[in-house]
Specification:
By secondary structure, this protein is an all-alpha fold. It has one domain. Helix content is 74%, strand content 0%. It has 10 helices and no strands. The longest helix is centred in the middle third of the chain and has 34 residues. It is globular and about 55 Å long.
């Protein structure tokens, strides 16, 4: 619909380039990109969802396939959004996702902007539900409350109170007049990445416990990949912290 340049996509999308050099802003955006792709809440959501659905050992292959398919679709959709907005709104200052969709509609790309708006609404609604649910499950485990969607409200009152409270809080933040939603979103993702290594380390330790995991314990190759991810995130977080404390060294 927007006729993007294939050569430009290949050149700027596959070949790394750092327009502003290695500075705090670059580290900030790299961390935000990681945070929006993999965050601590996702780990807690997935394990709690598996328990809530009553998935057994026989369902593990389908669970893996579900996760793999979701990962692929996430990347494909993200690439499409980057290509579409990069083609139609290059150099335009955007304050929030709704503004991007509206501007696309007025730049002779009405249907593309409409599809983007529908997709972003769906992503926001799904995100609000999933993150609030993950928080409610986590608090339920911490405090020993009944915490399952299979329970009625009377059976798990604190679980549903927490769920409702987090949903309302998310909605209130969005409704704040002139709130810098893009900055808030990016900042939240950066915080998520900063906290991610701790969650991943404990997850890796659990996955290497053969007594608990049995034949599903991590292989050497899986440990190498997981360890590499943790090391990269720690290095990136450290560089960002140093760039904030000593900005003159990253110019």
């Amino acid at each position: 619909m927007v006729n993007p340049s294939v050569s430009q996509i290949v050149h700027t999308g596959l070949i790394p380039n750092w327009p502003g050099g290695f500075n705090g802003e670059l580290f900030f955006f790299l961390m935000a990109n990681i945070g929006t792709t993999i965050a601590p809440w996702m780990l807690f959501f997935q394990q709690s969802a598996v328990v809530d659905k009553g998935i057994g050992e026989k369902d593990i292959p389908w669970g893996k396939f579900d996760t793999l398919l979701g990962s692929i679709l996430t990347v494909v959709v993200a690439i499409c959004i980057v290509v579409v907005t990069g083609t139609t709104l290059l150099g335009v200052s955007i304050n929030d996702a709704a503004q991007a969709a509206k501007m696309m509609m007025t730049h002779q790309h009405y249907y593309a902007g409409t599809f983007l708006a529908i997709g972003l609404f769906n992503a926001g609604l799904l995100g609000a539900i999933c993150i609030s649910l993950a928080s409610s499950w986590a608090f339920g485990e911490i405090f020993g409350w009944a915490h399952s969607l299979n329970n009625k409200i009377k059976e798990a009152p604190w679980f549903y109170i927490c769920y409702f409270f987090t949903l309302v809080t998310a909605g209130m933040v969005v409704l704040i007049p002139n709130a810098p939603l893009v900055l808030i979103t990016l900042f939240v993702q950066v915080i998520a990445v900063t906290l991610l290594p701790a969650a991943l380390v404990f997850l890796i330790l659990l996955l290497n416990d053969k007594k608990t995991m049995g034949k599903y314990a991590n292989t050497l190759w899986q440990n190498m990949i997981s360890g590499f991810i943790v090391v990269v995130i720690v290095i990136l977080s450290t560089l960002y912290g140093l760039s904030v404390l000593f900005p003159n060294y990253f110019k």
